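Worked example

This section walks through a single chain of length 245. The input is the sequence exactly as stored; nothing has been trimmed or padded.
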Amino acid sequence: MSATLGMKNTTVKMFGGKANVPNNTMAKLMYYLHCAVTVIQYENSVLTDYQNYDDLSGEELLAVYELAKLLNPSLFINAGIFILDQRLLVDSDNQFYEITDETIGVHVNQEIVIGGRSVKVLKVMACNRLWLTRNYYGPIQEIDSIIRDYLNQKTTITTSGNFETEPITSPDYRSVPITMTCPYCKALITTKTEDRFQILACICCLIFWLFYCCFQICRNKNLLCCNTTHRCPNCGRYLGSYDAC
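Given that input, the structure is written out below as tokens.
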């Protein structure tokens, strides 16, 4: 959609349409980057392809985070490139404009310095606080927390755009559900257990049953040939396991 608006000494061309952004933290942040590089002369790479966020590698997902920190809203607002003016929004929370001769009540620099490099300003974008919260401040705050966990413990970044922290093992995991705080969703839970029958261990038990019983008692283990997996009933994440044998 495009339209040309006439104002005194100013010609404003409105362009762009509604975007269908996936309901995913990384996708929203990548959509913000897509909008940011639309208004400046900056490379529009796979890091801004928010529709295909699940195709990124772990390194690329980290690069999205770093680029988002670099292209933060304050940089654009202070330079007059992002305009927080509800009057300029038609039927969405953000709207792009191409402006010739003059700007709408604000000064837009011809160039802006980003990461020590001068880039040209091509367009401006009107938006509101809700749009910034939904697509930048909310996602970046969530990912900040994940990145801190990444630096403090081993974390796997999956191509689905999620960060999977390796399970925290504990000697307290038993063959029955336990009450604990989930390290992922932070909820107070009683773990959901799943037993896995060990065929080979059962055969050994039948052959060497006396030795096996003594061995299990000395190890403070139960006599069943079942390993138990513990998961969070709230978020479904794997927490740890109890090995009977």
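What to look for: The first helix runs from residue 25 to 39.
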